[in-house]
Design a protein that fits this description.
Layout: E1 10-16, H1 20-26, H2 28-34, E2 39-43, H3 54-57, E3 63-67, E4 77-81, E5 87-90, E6 103-108, E7 111-117, H4 126-151, E8 155-161, H5 185-196, E9 201-202, H6 203-207, E10 234-238, H7 240-243, E11 246-251, E12 267-271
Parallel strand pairs: 1-2, 7-8
Antiparallel strand pairs: 1-12, 2-4, 3-4, 5-6, 6-7, 8-10, 9-10, 11-12
Helix pairs in contact: 4-5
Length: 277
Amino acid sequence: MPAGTLRRVLTLSTVNVNGLRAAAKKGFVEWLGATDSAVVALQEVRAQPGELTAAVREPDGWHTSHAPSEVKGRNGVSVYTRAEPEAVRVGYGEPEFDGSGRYLEVQLPGLVVASLYLPSGDVGTERQEQKERFMASFLPYLTELRAKAAASGREVVVMGDWNIARAEIDIKAWKTNQKNSGFLPEEREWLGRVFDEAGYVDVQRKLDPEGPGPYTWWSYRGKAFDNDAGWRIDCVLATPGLAGKCTSVVVERAETYAQRWSDHAPVTATFDWDFPA
């Protein structure tokens, strides 16, 4: 960058809002108004666009893309961008999941950004089988997405609620959760393949490989939040070229239990990247 020019940065945020209508009443709108992010990815919106107020559906200064679930009151992902997207894609081409409100991507100059809400699963139930089918079909798409983006000169960021804690440092009570969905050996192995085979980089762990945490989700039950007994399941994954430009990742944990507007905290990543105008 020539001397005397301003450094350009790209800031991205992701948060599982645990119901956008409820979050909007408890602090999401104020948070969105204060963020410096150029892109905000939301998961578990749980509302059709028409059920949201105009201030939430299309806030001033933002271009919004929504992918609600065909099942009312479930799932739903959105992406808010300061710049108008060049293209928007709902789903990743798998008929079982394309209408489920779990994946949405937008194309921006030099960048593809996706909001992901991976199924949570429940061992021994159809929900876990659904999660396994999603993972099996999603990994090849991630590989394809990276290749196509590179061919068009774009980097990729897939951020959201991955519903898998990769390692012991990503979950406080790892010893008691080894047989629970979200920390199963096969799930952790799959996420490892996203890194090793598909070639994505967990930017939090690139900057802080030791941990523990920082956690991004805490159960509403008991004293999980107060004791910081959480899981790190909300992650920002980027292609290597962009990941190498990441300068910070911050989990915006509420100061008190009463100030939470979701059971997840926003995760905000900043990149020293001279992105195209």
